[in-house]
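Allow me, if you will, to draw on your knowledge of protein folds for a short while. I have a record of one protein: its chain in single-letter code and its fold written as discrete structure tokens. I remain grateful for any guidance, and I place the record below:
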Amino acid sequence: MSIQLYNAIVEDFSKISTFSRKAENELRKKYIDLPSATFGSIMSLLVQRSMKQSYRKSPVISSKYYELYEDLMHDKSKGDVILRLSDSQGISPALLVRSLLQNVYPDSTQTKKIIKDTTLIENKDLAYQMFLGIMNDNQYGPYADIVKQSIGLEYELRLERELRLMNITFSDENILRSRGYDKTPDFKLDVPIAVDGFIVNWVESKAMFGDEENHSGYVKEQLTCYWNRFGPGLVIYWFGYLETLDFTPEINNMFILRTRFPSRDRITQYKAELL
């Protein structure tokens, strides 16, 4: 993706005042030509960062939100109170739910259980409002986490299927961990392949969009470790990545980036080059 398009999305995101599903869908209309998965992944990154920058965990803040919540609940036409409150306070609905729970249930362990299962809340009105808040948050909270985990697994399985169809043998994360490795790529190839003249020993699947900030984090926390242990590899950002990443120092040294796995014909040719 061009840096100009990415910056335009970031700028438009900075202008929205709410983080509800409705606000995301309205912004999505402006970028109708952008693949839905790519746009959704970019939005997820931006929402997560915005919440980390603006939200502060505090009993005072939790108490303030709960007072506002109770005031709105006294309204006969209360409707979706959590969604209205999250809009007015400029935080994501699921994060507001978490803050409210911290005021009701001081024990963090109990809070984590309840946010995953709102039926554990004795107050039926509170349980219903919190359920609505969580289910209407595309980018934050347990519902969003489950969706992201499912998508990540789906693309790992897709990559595994492609490797098997091409008769490329590999060791997956489970096998590598059984051998004592603590940090492992998704697939360590038993026999290296070449992609555009670049030797690939391992493949990492990222079911997301890659921009400079999250990619830098992966280089530090994961990819450098893979390179140190297994040599150079291939990172797949299935939903695209920022064009500037192709010019980072690690490219063509530690790993290369792609948005999909190379085709069968190309892999066969690259194998021949290694013989």
